[in-house]
């Protein structure tokens, strides 16, 4: 009897639930890869880890202090790699917080000249009790690290680290090992310190029971070495791919004589660009627009019908008595699947294959084209490909220019002025000059600078000038992120994105300045301690909106929102929070002798804890 359909649209899973630790374990380290990224979604990840059990997580997502505290804890324990030039334009509030998160994100490029396109999370969990094994989680996704609402797929595997190597994990290990070397050589950051040990543990991880009734799992990576993954041929094939190209579809359909044995679900606008002769090789459907419409007043809670378009990638093959379900990042396109010169694909992609008997996994109809999924589909009706108007042509040209600019390594120089830091950008290394096409403008700005339009970067890109001034900001607003805006003057079409530079000459104390700027006053200091000590959820966070500083001070040793009790508990559990408070107090000291954010009353209380904390440290 087949298991529940693997592609049932009602099997919903939140992205952030991937971060939830197994019972008896705590989050340790993680590496993620994504094609595109937005800062707001990236900031939600540490919130999901640090406040995993909080009931009012929505409140925390709106709280700069909660974001600040979670980012502080996670900044050195995560690494995220994305395709260069694919970080979305940032809002100022998120941009300021990303100063503490900027070492976490690295932009990389595909060696074959295409897109860096894999989407995965590899997470390590440490046991809370000695003698228990290390646990790991591997998620292979079709979704990017953005707030996109398309219909996506995710494969989540949990496993235990043993002494012997699991050979099947080598493709994933190889991809993660290669990541630091895919960054721009002119200003390449150092690899995460935890990467070697994480790779060793991943190599020795054995996965628990596989989903969807599968009995075997395999991984494949395209774009790093010669050769390319493709699904094995069988008797029947079903493809889910939002983006398609003729050469890839022709290759996939080879060996299947009857179009009824090759089913394809893709976006209609993509199919319209495929030659009719190639489309005739498939039985084609699209995602029904009516099935994804959502009227808020019709339903109290969101469900599968809230999705906006197809983004899932899957290839399902019936092969004898077995079913192969291939999930991952690869679209049915030439760049993803077809080797070019050099023998590798243009894109870097990752795919996972679930393999099992049809008696357990079912047929294509059972696993993919279930009743729940079929109701989202409609027959494909060909339309004439839209003629490319001036705006579409301009956008296409700007996208090509985005790729060229994103490939340039930039250095952001910091110079101390009286009260602010002057910022100047220059091209690092030996990048060739870049002349902008006629009628195209490029504006550049530091993302925390008030000038939203930015500064004309044409002379910098052409190397007519060696450095360009980007204004000045307080030390707390120095980040390595630059906002880039390309504009076609004739059509008004714009493309905006964020690009990382290497900070040069940033004064000491920048991270501490970010803390002081966000905490800012005594009231926020106590709210931050409440978050750090885990008393959020007991009313302190919500009540503090109307509480005055005096109330906080009176509650230090009283019931209700007392901080004294959790401080004593943290001392007895030796869970690390008090060491964080000690570092926080030191970092909040104003080097210029300004008003101290930490009130004297708390410093007096802390003086009684510090010797006990030091004694515990000496015993260890």
Count the beta strands.
23
What oligomeric state best describes the polypeptide chains here? single chain
Distance between the termini: 56 Å
Uncertain segments? 290-307, 535-561
| Classification by helices and strands | alpha+beta
Radius of gyration, rounded?
26 Å
Rough outline: globular
Question: What do you see in this structure?
Answer:
Helices cover 29% and strands 23% of the residues. With 620 residues, the chain is α+β, with helices and mostly antiparallel strands. Strands 8-14-13-12-9-10-11-15 form an eight-stranded mixed β-sheet. Strands 3-2-1-4-5-6-7 form a seven-stranded mixed β-sheet. The chain has a four-stranded mixed β-sheet with strand order 20-17-16-23. Helix 1 (39-50) crosses helix 3 and helix 5 (170-178) runs antiparallel to helix 6. The longest helix has 20 residues, at 600-619. The chain is globular. The N and C termini lie far apart (56 Å). Residues 290-307 and 535-561 have low confidence and may be disordered.
